[in-house]
User: Which sequence fits this backbone?
């Protein structure tokens, strides 16, 4: 069973091409957990399952799975990685192509032979019904959430997947690790949520720490970068061109009309190989 591994700023994914897995309609929760496990498996922040057939609006379809087996609607880093995989394996023609996800269709553009990939991520919305966030319909801006004995001010957004953005004086890994799990599963977020702790550095730079839904503490995230830049712009704290600084590195985000997001960042190829069936029998 063949696999391909890439990382985008330390956020690593395993790409599984369904054509290499006859008889698999989709990986099971058990198989996903086994492959992603850092000690007993190959190790990754998730599985990219594709390319899959799709409608006429895109060139192919992608399904994205978190290490706990849950499915993600969209992943910015995952999309950049999958775009490079398609380019590397010559599964698409040209430098620009469209990928269908559960969170909508995106357009990718290959730069520097795949070492840099730009993705038009779609439109950020702050609408509570679209994110979703419980309560009356509203734009979710500067609301209060209490977790672990501490109170935070947050904004919520979606770019095809849900985000809770918390502005803080200092963004630290400890904040994400300590409070991220409780915020992710807070009942006001019926589909759970990705969590970001955001510090505005200046009008062109922000720093974030990330707790990712279904994955945990994460070194970088493209959709988180997109949501945080949009929130900071909506609050009037940054301009339309923002560099998002994360522990794994930086992503460039451009905010267009209607909060349309274009995200650009690096992708690195790590390895390719085969997964032995013995893994799934031994993993508990």
Assistant:
């Amino acid at each position: 069973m063949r696999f391909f591994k890439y990382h985008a700023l330390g956020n690593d994914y395993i790409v599984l091409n369904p054509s290499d897995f006859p008889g698999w309609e989709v990986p099971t929760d058990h198989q996903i957990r086994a492959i992603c496990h850092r000690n007993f498996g190959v190790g990754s922040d998730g599985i990219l399952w594709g390319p899959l057939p799709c409608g006429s609006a895109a060139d192919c379809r992608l399904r994205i799975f978190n290490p706990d087996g849950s499915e993600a609607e969209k992943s910015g880093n995952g999309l950049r990685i999958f775009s490079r995989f398609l380019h590397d394996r010559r599964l698409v023609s040209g430098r620009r192509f469209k990928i269908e996800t559960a969170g909508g269709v995106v357009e990718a553009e290959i730069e520097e032979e795949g070492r840099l990939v730009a993705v038009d991520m779609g439109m950020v919305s702050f609408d509570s019904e679209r994110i979703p966030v419980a309560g009356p319909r509203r734009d979710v801006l500067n609301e209060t959430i209490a977790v672990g004995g501490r109170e935070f001010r947050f904004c919520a957004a979606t770019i095809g997947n849900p985000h809770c953005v918390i502005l803080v004086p200092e963004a630290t890994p400890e904040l994400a690790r300590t409070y991220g799990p409780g915020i992710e599963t807070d009942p006001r977020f019926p589909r759970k949520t990705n969590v970001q702790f955001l510090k505005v550095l200046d009008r062109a730079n922000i720093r974030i720490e990330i707790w990712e839904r279904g994955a945990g503490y994460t070194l970088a995230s493209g959709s988180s970068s997109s949501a945080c830049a949009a929130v900071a712009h909506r609050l009037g704290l940054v301009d339309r061109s923002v560099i998002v600084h994360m522990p794994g590195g930086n992503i460039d985000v451009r905010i267009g009309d209607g909060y349309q997001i274009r995200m650009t960042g690096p992708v690195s190829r790590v390895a390719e190989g085969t997964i032995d069936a013995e893994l799934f029998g031994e993993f508990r």
